[in-house]
Amino acid sequence: MQLPLSVCLILFSFLLWANHVSSKSSTYIIHMDKPSMPKAFSTHHYWYSSLLKSATSAEAKLIYTYDHAFHGFSAVLSIDELQALKKSEGFVSASVSKAVTLDTTRSVSFLGLNTATGIWPASHYGKDVIIGIIDSGIWPESPSFNDDGMTEIPPGWKGICQQGPDFNSSLCNKKLIGARFFDAASRAEDPERFFISARDTDGHGTHVASIAAGNFVNNVSYFGYAPGTARGVAPRARIAAYKTGSNEADTLAAVDQAVADGVHIISISLGYETANLFDNPIAAATFGAREKGIIVCKSAGNRGPSIATMIAGIPWEFVVASGTIDRWFAGTITLGNGKTITGFTMFPARASVINLPLIYNETVLACDSSELLSQSFLSRIVVCNITNEDGPVNFFAVMQNLINSNVRAAVIISEDSVRIRSTYFPFPGAVITSGQAVELIEYATTSASPTATIDFQQTIIGPNLPRGAASPALSGSSSRGPSQTYQEILKPDIMAPGVLILAAYSPIGTGSQIGDRIFLSTDYALESGTSMATPHIAGVAALLKAVHPEWSPAAIQSAMMTTANHLDETKQPIKDQSFISYRVASPLGMGSGQVDPNRALDPGLVYESTPQDLADLVCSMNYTREQIRAIIRSSYNCSRRSPDLNYPSFIALFNFDQRGMTLTRTFKRTVTNVGSGAAKYRMKLEKPENSTVTVTPTTLVFGKKYEKRSYSLSIRYRGDIELTYRQGSLTWIEETGKYVVRSPIVISGGVDNYG
Ligand SMILES: *[C@@H]1O[C@H](CO)[C@@H](O)[C@H](O)[C@H]1NC(C)=O
Ligand SMILES: *[C@@H]1O[C@H](CO)[C@@H](O)[C@H](O)[C@H]1NC(C)=O
Ligand SMILES: *[C@@H]1O[C@H](CO)[C@@H](O)[C@H](O)[C@H]1NC(C)=O
Ligand SMILES: *[C@@H]1O[C@H](CO)[C@@H](O)[C@H](O)[C@H]1NC(C)=O
Ligand SMILES: *[C@@H]1O[C@H](CO)[C@@H](O)[C@H](O)[C@H]1NC(C)=O
Ligand SMILES: *[C@@H]1O[C@H](CO)[C@@H](O)[C@H](O)[C@H]1NC(C)=O
Ligand SMILES: *[C@@H]1O[C@H](CO)[C@@H](O)[C@H](O)[C@H]1NC(C)=O
């Protein structure tokens, strides 16, 4: 996109300014080895303060100390001060605190959650599980956080409801049991960037929290679209909100505090996108959280559809891709001859576009010219053709031109209509395909005085017309693996609804707009992105945790992955929305597939892994001893190294310069029987094209519950593909057909091949 000159100038001066600051001092996150603390110090806090005082010249500028998910502190330091600090006993590593960004209800029933059977009643709707939301804060007055039907807060909870000028601590309740804010690092870098409370002024954090665990609220909608009852995936789970500034040191403090407070699940829909694990303190903190039995759900990012666009796909985070649901929003165009055409629209009002003249002519067809300013377009509906054979259309620019014109409404022809699924729709109009346009053009060019009427605010459940695509489909923007952080484990892990999801919002957030001056406020908004998919997975994890409190994070993750659906509602392989012709989606985009909560309740077998196994994995990565310590600390030694984590998916990589060579990769896996008793499973294999896959043994016999059985899977493949990846699967099927335990297999070029 071409930036206007003024924006370029602002960006340029900002870069200069940022540069200037970093040459003076920066916020650093210092990772310390706590067992090295000298006996003289009663607490880690005194130790860190003392180190800082002796290493730095002026008053110590300590921002946070961390002690739960991560050991260390953050501070504003010059390079010299940092060098002095590095000589201290117990120093592990230091990194500059980098920027963190926001990744930007029907979905609950679309996932099969219902009050009659399955995981909702079995889990008592997630009763007593606590989900920590690390995001932009919370709008506590939202009806979604009412505590009707919630029981007393369990005594072990250590969180607080932090008071602020606009946030009375009495605003928390039995649903929203904690709210805190972390802005010290952002503020240290720029005093203008501060929070006064955990209040969400953006809307993102409120949206995410209510998707995970919002209570039931009747009769909500987004300007008439998506009307119905709002509710989260785990409507009886509790929410603790941690508002974080746009700085890693703040986010790290939020994760550390969530762990200390006693959350069971952490949901993070933020980008902290540092590819190197050892240079990513939040990855070290989520490892710490995982050690304490906490499941960390994380958004894949919205950089798709190209391969290898996922930056931080971290092995111990449950990484979530975004998919569509079976609902879309429409307007009906009724032609003067009575014929109707249904197009996509999200114009946020019931505008009266009734029987106005319809104009279809060459001059205005692109709808990008100043011709539209002419008086002759007053009270007219124009037909715009924004089909662009060379790439995506700039829908924003077309809308802006229409807003500035004299036109009353527009019918927009675009083959890209699937991608124009944004809630930004400030001009009255509807998007149709060129196939649908044939009839309209025929009428507009043959009738002496063509007219049309457009009706807005329609919600349609069913195939995603006008394309007729089945749901779920993988969203085009969802980031794709292999993960730049560590490519030997398939990421993302799973897919959940993330396209046009209705959930609670801050009334002061950017709700919607009409024209370029009228801004509308809303308590419920439709938002899209892996940010919205992630809390669906956090909610399902809460439901599973409520049913199986003894299950490890690995078991809960495995249950969801091996029961995920790789087929859509028409029983065809899930498609990828990024291709015009809708190719089959790859596990590099959707992981194991769409989460199926009711099946995850009883998965039959699980792939377990312990923090020690994760440490063994880190030890096998080609890092120095110091880099490894920066991730897993000194509580683990690297006496066992193994890249072969007991994971419920498989990825075999090759380099493009290995094309023509035959490569072999062998994986060893152990499954634990969590079914009711003795069971026998047989293997079913779907081989990736041009490969040989051998599994031994081919049957697994379990005498009783919790018994473990191991198998090996070996792939021989030629690195000669024209495609950049191939896919298959291994499924263990229990004799009676009760359990089906599926793992995707991917053969792919490595991250370096995708530039
Ligand atoms: C918080 O709200 C309670 C109950 O509405 C009120 O009594 C109290 O004065 C408020 N506290 C502050 C600091 O505003
Ligand atoms: C639902 O909300 C709309 C708009 O606020 C209101 O007009 C309508 O009466 C409500 N319906 C019910 C059943 O509460
Ligand atoms: C297109 O329609 C406008 C408005 O009616 C009219 O002024 C203009 O002359 C038309 N152009 C052509 C090429 O027909
Ligand atoms: C719309 O524009 C595309 C690309 O320029 C062209 O191929 C197509 O025929 C046009 N359709 C109509 C209805 O004008
Ligand atoms: C580790 O690094 C060495 C030397 O840089 C290289 O030869 C080796 O292939 C690397 N191993 C892996 C698993 O990346
Ligand atoms: C490494 O850790 C293992 C397991 O905790 C322990 O048995 C072993 O002795 C340790 N090795 C070294 C060299 O510290
Ligand atoms: C499979 O192998 C054959 C023969 O080597 C080759 O022609 C073909 O392109 C390969 N197919 C794929 C999908 O790589």
From TrEMBL:
Active site: D135 (charge relay system), H204 (charge relay system), S531 (charge relay system)
Cleavable signal peptide: 1-23
Sequence ranges assigned to domain Peptidase S8/S53 in this UniProt record: 126-568
Keywords: Glycoprotein, Hydrolase, Protease, Secreted, Serine protease, Signal
Domain Inhibitor I9 residue range list: 27-101
Residues of the Subtilisin-like protease fibronectin type-III domain: 644-747
The family this protein is said to belong to: Belongs to the peptidase S8 family.
UniProt-recorded name of the protein: Uncharacterized protein
Organism: Salvia splendens (Scarlet sage)
